[in-house]
Amino acid sequence: MRSRAAFSLLALLVVAGCTTSEAGNPRTSESSADVPTTTKSSSTSKTATIPPRPKALKLDSADPCALLTAAQRAELRITRVEASTNGTDIYKGAKQCELEVAATGLAYEYTINLITTEGVEAWLSGKRRVDTTVVSVNGYAGVIHVLKGAGGAKNSHECYIGVDVADGQQLQVGLGEISRTFSQEQICQMTEQAAGMAMTTLQTLG
């Protein structure tokens, strides 16, 4: 399966000028490294504040394919792993890992991108055609972003989350679905789960 997520992400970025909506501030206390956790606020605001990180986790020397352990890959039912680089104009050359799930009746792919050229605040600028929700991933701020208006009958079949790991850097995890099996909400829940797992591993390296 060729990565949909990298190319779909470009489509989200090229159309600017639309308003985003975000949930309120996530909690700032760090979660146990043993259990990936995500939380989100029910309040909404025009401007979301990114809270301080527990500590910076630089991505420069990290390997995106090493951020999910064998046990984590098995839990996510991943059947194929391939290292690559991001091909979009805005993130071109960023280290990327494609993780395919292919089972009876299921076909989707996770991507893990190590973005070292901009932080998550870019998703909250209001200049990208996405809806956003701010969550906490293992104590770090994460910004879920989906195509503007996605949800309900308008399922984009993909979801992304950028985790604020360091100044000007974000760990970005995406899921692109081919099988049309899951709702938009389920896809984003699966993306959050994978991001929590990747952050658990990254925190052990930092």
From TrEMBL:
* Bias type Polar residues, positions: 21-36
Q: Specify whether Transport is a keyword of the entry.
A: no
Listed Low complexity bias regions? 37-47
Q: Which InterPro entries match?
A: DUF3558
Q: Where is the signal peptide?
A: 1-23
Keywords noted in UniProt = Signal
- Provide the residue span(s) of the region labelled Disordered: 21-55
Q: Which Pfam families match?
A: DUF3558
Extract the PROSITE patterns matched here: PROKAR_LIPOPROTEIN
- Name of the featured protein: DUF3558 domain-containing protein
High-level lineage? Bacteria, Bacillati, Actinomycetota, Actinomycetes, Pseudonocardiales
